[in-house]
Amino acid sequence: MSLSPIRKIAISTGGGDAPGLNAVIKAVVTTAELKGWECVGIRDGYNGLLFPERYPKGGVVPLNTATVRAITPLGGTILGSTNKGNPLKYRVTQADGTVVETDMSDQLIASIAAQGIDAVVAVGGDGSLSIAYELYQKGLRIIGVPKTIDNDLERTVVTFGFDTAVAFATECIDRLHSTAQSHGRLLVIEVMGRYAGWIALYAGIAASADVILIPEIPYDLAHIATHLQQGAFPDKGYGIVVVAEGAKPKDGTVSVVENRMGNVERLGGIGEKVALQLEQLTNIESRAVVLGHLLRGGSPTPHDRIISLRFGAAAVRALAKGENGVMIAIDPPEMLCVPLADIHHRMKLVNVNSDTVYTARELGICFGDDI
Ligand code: F6P
Fold this sequence. Notes:
- By secondary structure, the protein is of the alpha/beta class.
- The chain folds into two domains: 8-160 and 300-332, Rossmann fold, CATH 3.40.50.450; 165-297 and 351-362, 3-Layer(aba) Sandwich (Rossmann fold), CATH 3.40.50.460.
- Helix content is 35%, strand content 19%.
- The mean pLDDT is 96.
């Protein structure tokens, strides 16, 4: 199918934010301008188009080189984001309090056309990219850019935001060594990552953790207690455990907190549980620290800035070449286009037989299993 020439594109940032979003926006806008295309930003995922009445200053905002000039180092997204704005399953609360999921995708696509938008660059994680795939199947011209601190998207070596999250988690864990040492305590640090252990694994290795617990390796508390009592405590008098929010015990389940405003499982609480259980097992005073959303904030690292800028520029180049229904992926040194279909409902987990996991084990780090 031949596609009509592009004159105007829109950017949407959806799902949980990640450092580097603004850098992607900047590169999309400046590269589009070079092609002679107009560029706009949709507020809060697609809400700016679905509910324009909520935006007195406009649900769609013009973007140009001047408006994006200084945004590369900024955390968050100048367009706003939402992880409750799936246009295919929009949750509407009825007068009686019940929630009904409504498909608003036809309305969204009509609204995109009415704005004269020829193509969309959708920057998001698995949820937003699945939405992009479904909108593509309904005829929208769309290119995805992989965003998430969790690094859990298939077909790309890395997502932007991950490096910044790992760098900050590493700094926090580094700082916790000294207080753990002063008090002879066990410090348990819970990090984000959903059902993948990338952040815990990378930050745990970089910051010399004694134990790393990830969803991909269900743990046994007895092994962790033995490891700490026979290694970390006799050796240095304190212990550092990094636990991914989605880690779970053998034959157990993930730890969740109540999701008061949504329908997705909200992970959380595993750090406190592990600290309490290890204190009871080892009789070593333990404390838990949850890094949570701190990992999503702040200025992107130079690495995340560079890949975000490259992702944004590559997305526009791909559109200019006629690509559609694809995600930009990084496969160093190249940027590739991979079908959005390959990302849809898939998750990139840590390979437990990878060199990184072997290296961690060789460094003496325990994963809570019996290896
Ligand atoms: O996907 C990114 C992420 O930060 C996950 O690691 C975490 O589980 C989730 O978002 C939390 O999202 P929120 O609190 O914004 O709903």
